[in-house]
Amino acid sequence: MSTIRFPAIDRRAFLVGSASIxxxxxxxxxxxxxxxxxxxxxLVAAPGQVSLVGPPHPDTDVWCYGGRIPGPEIxxxxxxxxxxxxxxxxxxxxxxxxxxxxxxxxxxxxxxLTQKPIAPGExxxxxxxxxxxxxxxxxxxxxxxxxxxxxxxxxxxxxEPESIPVDRDVTWVLSDWRLLRDASISDxxxxxxxxxxxxRVGNTVTVNGRVLETFSVRVxxxxxxxxxxxxxxxxxxxxxxxxxxxxxxxxxxxxEPHTPPNGRIVLxxxxxxxxxxxxTGRPGxxxxxxxxxxxxxxxxxxxxxxxxxxxxxxxxxxQAIRLAGNPLPEPDxxxxxxxxxxxxxxxxxxxxxxxxxxxxxxxxxxxxxxxIWAINGVAASGHVHEPLLTLHRDRSHVLELVNDxxxxxxxxxxxxxxxxxxxxxxxTEHKEWQDTVLLAPRExxxxxxxxxxxxxxxxxxxxxEHQLGGMMGxxxxx
Length: 478
Ligand code: C2O
Ligand code: CU
Description:
binds CU-O-CU linkage; seven-stranded mixed β-sheet; 4 helices; Immunoglobulin-like
């Protein structure tokens, strides 16, 4: 499998003055008279054509929101209510899931479990509050391995009531694509080879829907860089040569500002990291941003390109910044109920049997049905299932996640955020709040949270091919 970038010759240099996206296709406005301000947006899901690689390569046929990749930015303030009219101009059913936002169950966008999928030509209105500030995103939950893989996703930014002092607030929606020579998308979605290994890792990486050569910066500038991994499967491990970005939030939620181990910022699929990036170089300098996650398949994502402008400020003037926490219920570790959740299957695994549609079947039968992964011995297809776990509402719970496979899995829980309290038996340094926790092969992690959001919630691997291949289940909060 190739993870090299698309062999593009003569890519157009794409200078981004500000990568903040103009929400051309979405028209926010305040509805007067409401107790909480309601911000309205429209998202039209439809086929489109965009220049992913740039000339001389032709445009790529994609599926997208608002005719663009990524979809229009939804940007609101913490505590605001959002109403999104979704129109489905695709030829198949869809839904929209608001990844990481703690929405009521009926607004969660899971086909058949929380809503009837949106038929072609039909509208659907989502409406929910945004209790947490941070970096979130939206994407379909219907055939997501194909719909997300073809380009349906966009950023959802919830601003803090008081913005932190930065010069620029920039979002990079990272994704990758499996493109053919003519820059069209290879349509082998859901191939068993991808399902059974590390998912559909593509050959072309884009930043905000473009193969990007350079990102221009100014000496003395402080940037809040919001990274969103919207790729089906690719895990990013970004290194900013010559710089030491500070992680200030993970999956939207503030974390004690820190420089990650080896300066590498790791994001599994669906994860977000907010960085504080201080531009400490000199005018005219260039620094590479590398993705070194997959050993021996490192590549240069882009160059940070310093302009010749005078420094915006003295480097000594940078002050520490800390974000205020989100209103998350603190789990009570002493009284928490414990549950074990074991991930099994995949190539080079030991799984021989699993439960499929209520029956114990062998691995050959599973694979015959496109399944090769299981959670607690159950390989799930489709979204509606007997719950894997039923959690007492408003109680604290610890889930011990055991990755009994040879592969990485970014595990995502809907409707809640959780603290990652330990990895392989060692307490984590920051007890970070996340909604998607990346487990390395054979790794164990404990997550803790208060199950305060009633309903049936998906719990699944966000490598969308693993989800397709059975690594999915329902957690009931009742
Ligand atoms: Cu981002 Cu269940 O999804
Ligand atoms: Cu997985």
